[in-house]
Amino acid sequence: MLKTTRKLIKKTAANLNISDDVLTRLLKVDKIHEFEIQLKSGKKFKAYRSQHNNRLGPYKGGIRFHPEVTAEEVEALSILMSFKCAAVGLPLGGGKGGISVNPKELNIDEIEELSRAYVKHLHPHIGPDKDVPAPDVNTNSQIIDWMVDEYSRQTNLETVASFTGKSLLKGGSHGREAATGYGGVIALNRYLELKNEQNKEISIAIQGFGKVGKFFARRSRPNWKITDVSDSSASLQNSQGLDIDELIKFKNDGKSFKDFSSATATVLKSNQIISADTDVLVPAALGNAITQNNAGLIKAKIIVELANGPVTEPAFRILDKKGVTVLPDIIANAGGVIVSYLEWQQNLNHEKWPVEKVESRLKMYIEKAIETVYSVSKSDKVSIKEAALRVAIKRLI
Ligand code: NAD
Fold it and tell me: Nearest C-alpha to atom 14 of ligand 1 is from which residue?
């Protein structure tokens, strides 16, 4: 995924005649903080925070707890965040952090100790006008609440604008949970409107039925029929349309699709979702899900990238040649960072907005981004994906 992003940025920059010097500066990370955390028990972990670029505003990006977190990974993800914020017009820069840890091997007290230790080390370098972290893989609002509290202890600043993704009671925003999935719905709908196809009946396959995939399905338009969904164990199919509420309840009970036994769906292999006979395919699981090995199997005409980097660069070239439109991750899945930005704004102004206000602003950002890249793709005769990178690169430069 990370290689793909860099490759696409380099290719787009070359097409825009951007000099090597400027490109090198664009890809250069301002600062990477690398340190070790030792818990009272003696267990040690490597921790990182990458701050890529703050020319548009404070660094912004998640903190993940995962054994495979490395300096290279957070660095590349922080670059992606700068491009994402720029593509949707947020006054924010790109950051990303993480701790190389398997949180399943720690008890709750150790996770709190680890979260607080991370902030104890980093507090001089983060804060409401410097770098505003958020949750990411294996981190959640409870972890962020601990981090906010630690930040206040260390700095004596009584602010909740130091992090986003907090619990609602501690300054979090309404609408955060659904933001990424709903943002994907807004992006697809606006694209269809621009093509005057918004009233057509369309069929959709969703790979991955976690936080993002579920909310995409739940917030889909009435004339969109979800006929295929998958998790890592199996995919489910019903050409008449699946019962989304039934599937959400099934997943919320902690079950896997391979154990789904109801007349409302046929159970197929997980990877069969890629070749589903639908108009739209929504990869909402992992990076690199669509590669040169399976791109040829895709029947969908539109791909909505809800995961980060689900389509590799060689796969993208195959799809582009076949006339498949890819609505890129830096816009299609930007709903999360947009609502994070709105949470930060609410905190700075000591306000709490109703969900309707949050979602109308989310809609405004995503729709504007889709309209801009649609028009650039027409005027520059490039794909929507390349147009999105062109817009982001120009704003960053
Ligand atoms: P999640 O862990 O809640 O859900 C992931 C889903 O993908 C699960 O249903 C899992 O079973 C499924 N899955 C895993 N491997 C699979 C496979 N090989 N085939 C089919 N399904 C598979 O994660 P999430 O928060 O929904 O995030 C999904 C993707 O969206 C990730 O790539 C994440 O980086 C990206 N993303 C998430 C957010 C957010 O706000 N959560 C924001 C931007 C991007």
Answer: 232
- What tens digit of pLDDT does each residue of 294-328 get? 999 999 999 999 998 899 989 999 999 999 999 99
pLDDT for res 9 = 87
Q: How far apart are CA 247 and CA 201, in angstroms?
A: 21
- Residue-wise pLDDT for 248-267, tens only, equals 999 999 999 999 988 899 99
Buried b (16+ CB within 10 A) or exposed e, 252-263: eeeeebeebeee
Q: Judge whether 321 counts as a catalytic residue.
A: no
Name the active-site residue from 60, 84, 96, 363.
96
Q: Output the pLDDT for position 190.
A: 98
Give residue 248's pLDDT.
Answer: 97
CB-count exposure of residue 369 (10 Å: 0-12, 13-18, 19+): buried
Domains, in order of start, for the chain: 28-168 (3.40.50.10860), 179-332 (3.40.50.720)
Give residue ranges with CB within 6 A of ligand 1.
Answer: 180, 207-213, 230-232, 270, 284-287, 306-308, 333, 336
Q: In sequence order, which residues have a C-beta less than 8 Å from that of residue 249 and are 6 or more positions away?
A: none
Expressed in angstroms and rounded, the spacing between residue 154 Cα and the centre of ligand 1 is: 34
pLDDT in tens, 54-64: 999 999 999 99
Best probe residue, ligand 1, of 96, 207, 230, 232 (max atoms within 8 Å of C-beta): 232
Helices (H), 292-354: 313-322, 329-332, 335-348
